[in-house]
Amino acid sequence: MRRRLSKWISTGVVVVSLAGCSTVTPIPTTVATPGMPNAELALQQSMAETGREMARIGDMRPAAAAAARPKVAPGELDREVSFQWSGSLDDGVRELARIVGYEVVIRNASIFKQRPQVAIDPRPRRVYDLFRELGEQAGAKAHVRVDPQHHLVEVVYLV
């Protein structure tokens, strides 16, 4: 009888011991425990960083990145002039091209009924830089291309 009782007691102690080990404390996913990586917080931080970088890329202006200032320009484009303009892009390019003796070609002009309006202040600048400024002010509506070899300035309206 004693043996039987001690057998039941020892079995009970083992069962109670193992039952205490079977409970698991849940760790909430919204709290970052020091030293333990939290997948949800890491994902949120990664998405926030990606969003900031995409916004930075979206704010870049393609004209500033693509167009490089030439080190050498023909004499007529390199000279400084005081040119003031406020009006349509086409007329501004025509007037500036007339000053340096270049021809003007306007492509895809029928796309816009109202041409982009531009304004140039009268401070002296290189003619090449003035053409570039006119193109930058046109923005995504048109490009201004200067071809010094053929003495030609093109205004190309974009679709």
Automatic annotation (TrEMBL):
Entry keyword set: Signal
Pfam families linked to this entry: DotD
Superkingdom classification of source: Bacteria
Signal peptide boundaries: 1-19
Gene3D superfamilies hit by this protein: DotD protein
Regions that span the bilayer: none
Protein name: Defect in organelle trafficking protein DotD
UniProt source species: Rhodoblastus acidophilus (Rhodopseudomonas acidophila)
